[in-house]
């Protein structure tokens, strides 16, 4: 069963049709790439899955069950975490604080309530190291890290707090070649850990190496839907 499935989903804002008849699947251990230019409907698609907007037509299924999220909190509760391009982290806060930021939303602190600062710093450092980022100092403001590393902290945080679906909104858009590579490697790590990743990007060169499924949006319509294994090359 797909973690997330859209079946003929549509979204209207008044008389503007932002999405129409969109069908897509997100599976565990796979990356679903959503490609498209500005205005194609990528943000609208994210907002529906993340509980910020509701679809006007069609069906959304979460683990096979027809679902409409009333709020972002509902989506988080269902294990759907979104890393937005700009809002991922608070620049002046130390790395470790950013790592635990928002955890009260997902886990109500719960088991984490008893963690002291030393433990939180250790966990942040270990989790980042595990995913391939070696920070000597998690006390430094996260604003001192590169853009790629900042995105990675936000992704590692979602993975650590048990997200099943990770939605990444243009995580490489503002990054150079090297930093994009760091984030792409991180996406592979999340995928290998069994998460279903939705990777929004306008850059096919970033989508192809990591993607398992590809959807191209144009003016709210899906104009291409490919699954990697199904792409055949004549020999
Ligand atoms: P993308 O993220 O691919 O740039 P969007 O989902 O932001 O595309 O936008 C798709 C279309 O829907 C655009 O024409 C945009 O102007 C319109 N749109 C998006 N959000 C709203 C809104 N809240 N109200 C009205 N129109 C919107
Ligand atoms: P993004 O860069 O993520 O695609 P935009 O800059 O297109 O986002 O949109 C920013 C916000 O404005 C979003 O909440 C979007 O839904 C809203 N929006 C976009 N287009 C319109 C529109 N034509 N009318 C009203 N709101 C819009």
TrEMBL record:
Domain ABC transporter, residue spans: 4-235
GO MF terms, alphabetically ordered: ATP binding; ATP hydrolysis activity
UniProt entry keywords in alphabetical sequence: ATP-binding, Nucleotide-binding, Sugar transport, Transport
Signal peptide (UniProt feature, chain positions): none
Keyword ATP-binding: yes
Domain of life: Bacteria
Name this protein carries in UniProt: Simple sugar transport system ATP-binding protein
Residues of the full protein shown: 26 to 260 of 305
């Amino acid at each position: 069963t797909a973690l997330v499935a859209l079946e003929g989903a549509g979204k209207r804002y008044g008389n503007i049709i932002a999405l129409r008849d969109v069908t897509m699947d997100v599976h565990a251990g796979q990356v679903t790439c959503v490609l498209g230019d500005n205005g194609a409907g990528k943000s609208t698609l994210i907002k529906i899955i993340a509980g910020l907007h509701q679809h006007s037509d069609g069906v959304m299924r979460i683990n096979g069950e027809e679902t409409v999220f009333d709020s972002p909190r509902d989506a988080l509760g269902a294990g759907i975490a979104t890393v937005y391009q700009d809002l991922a982290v608070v620049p002046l806060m130390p790395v470790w604080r950013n790592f635990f930021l928002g955890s009260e939303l997902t886990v109500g602190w719960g088991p984490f309530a008893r963690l002291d600062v030393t433990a939180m710093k250790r966990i942040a450092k270990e989790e980042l190291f595990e995913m391939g980022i070696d920070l000597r100092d998690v006390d430094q403001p996260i604003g001192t890290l590169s853009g790629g590393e900042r995105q990675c902290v936000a992704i590692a945080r979602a993975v650590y707090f048990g997200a099943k679906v990770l939605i990444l909104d243009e995580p490489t858009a503002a990054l150079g070649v090297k930093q994009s590579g760091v984030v792409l490697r991180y996406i592979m790590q999340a995928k290998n850990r069994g998460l279903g990743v939705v990777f929004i990007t306008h850059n096919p060169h970033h989508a192809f190496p990591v993607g398992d499924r590809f959807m191209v949006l144009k003016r709210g319509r899906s104009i291409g839907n490919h699954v990697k294994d199904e792409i055949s090359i004549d020999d």
